[in-house]
Specification:
3-stranded antiparallel beta sheet; Immunoglobulin-like; alpha+beta; 2 helices; about 160 residues; elongated; 2 domains
Length: about 160
């Protein structure tokens, strides 16, 4: 049945100039509606990211602990949402790990840079504890002291 309908439409496009104009008009209207819907979705996504500025969040007691017998690390801490009216639904972090010869950060080499997302709901003016597993994406053996740096890239909010 679908083949028959497809063949019929192709025949009408070839034979009938009036149907050809109708099909082109219908296709242009469909493309225009699709582009407008896509732009509206992109606008909505950017508004979700702009409601809470990263400076309105406070990260405290952030620690990284290696999980036994693996290359995974566990990041734990507390997130404070200092926004007055928006609920935070998640945040994207920029993480980097440096392997240093000592705790004075001498002779450091960056072994990992990655973006991680933390899905957590924090109402305005409240705080929540979180836990996130971080994988270094390599099988390299860390021999020395590992120093972590993190920053908030953007926040997802309601």
């Amino acid at each position: 049945m679908k083949w028959f309908l497809g063949i019929l439409i192709l025949i009408l496009i070839v034979v009938s100039a009036r149907f050809r104009k109708f099909a082109i008009t219908l296709a242009l209207v469909g493309i225009t509606i699709g582009l407008l819907a896509w732009q509206y979705q992109e606008y909505g996504k950017s508004k979700v990211k702009d409601r809470i500025h990263p400076s309105e969040l406070t990260l405290e007691n952030i620690s990284f602990r290696q999980i036994e017998d693996s290359f995974d690390y566990e990041m734990t801490g507390r997130i404070f949402n200092n926004s007055e009216k928006y609920v935070m639904n998640g945040l994207f972090l920029n993480l980097s790990a440096k392997e240093c010869k000592d705790s004075a950060e001498n002779g450091c080499v960056i072994v990992s840079e990655q973006k991680e997302n933390v899905y957590i709901t924090v109402p305005p003016g409240q705080a929540r504890d979180f836990k996130k597993n971080i994988y270094l994406y390599s099988n390299q053996k860390i021999n020395n002291h590992l120093i972590w740096n993190y920053s908030i890239q953007h926040v997802i909010s309601e």
